[in-house]
Here is the input.
Amino acid sequence: MDIQLIKVHGSGNTFFLLDTTKLPRQLTKSEIVALTQKLTDHKNGLLGGADGLLLVGDSQKNDAAGRMRVINADGSEASMCGNGLRTVARYLAQKNHAENFEVETMYQNLHVQKAQDLFTGVSAFKVEISPVSFAAQDLKMHFKAKDQVIDEILPELSDTLKFTAVAVPNPHLISFVDDATLQGPKLERIAAYLNGENPYFPEGVNVSFVNLRAKDEIFVRTYERGVGFTNACGTAMSASSLLTARLYPEYANFDDTLSVYNPGGMVKTVPHKDGNRYWIDLIGNATFQDYITLDLSAALKQDFTDVEVQKTTEQKQYLQFIQTITK
Ligand SMILES: N[C@@H](CCC[C@H](N)C(=O)O)C(=O)O
Here is the structure.
């Protein structure tokens, strides 16, 4: 069976996007896991691999333009993906000739909207990141007698770093650090531990270090659950922006725009608060790099010899955009 994929990225967070409505039959769970692992493998995968697979389907209740499922590189399914949602929004916008609509995700329909191009040929979308929760049960977090962790030292992880745990709705553990710590080995040590067998986050957690750069400017480095280090994680950047406004009001205000730099580029975010409800707007590129046709059974054997690839010029333009920003 031939399948069509698009290799896409948001801030260098890379995915293969598959419109499952175009398949003659639906894929089984084990085919989805195996296909993701074979495609995304950075050594032997397709086109240098990727960080995950995005499945675009029909909205189940028919109250959204489509549905997004997110499969991490290791085959686990995530409840949300901010960078991926921008590319799915662009895909559905083109498919349905619409600019402003909702996309169904695991827990909630989310509002998405076309935004102004970031640069010539660099399409951008604004997506809603929601629902937000600090509750241990939503994070599937188990620190003794703690219902939430907000800006506290967790001696189980580090004697000096303060952490905040927040679900948006996928789980994030975030620490604000200085420049040396941002680039140092602690992030990998802590994140690799929490994404292996451990009593605190048995289902794993995305871990980010954030550096406050200037008013309305932060840098975020993330080690993702189910993937490892990625160039950027949209939900992590959104959660980090919200925490900047909540914990460091001298660096950001709710309802104001932040520039969030990351190893793969830059996005804009706007954290919002209404009583106890938080949400974030995430605005950034939705880049389509390659249109791909391949045979499913060959792909499941990691045989990519007969794959047809049509490269776009969008990555060239994205790299030009990157030249215009200072990290
Ligand atoms: N890269 C994504 C997040 C993908 C899911 C994450 N690894 C998880 O398991 O929660 C983003 O841009 O938000």
Observations:
- The chain has two domains: 2-129+286-323, 136-283.
- The first strand starts at residue 2 and ends at 10.
- The CA atoms of residues 157 and 193 lie 9 Å apart.
- The helical segments are 29-40, 82-96, 136-139, 179-183, 186-194, 234-247, 296-300, 314-323.
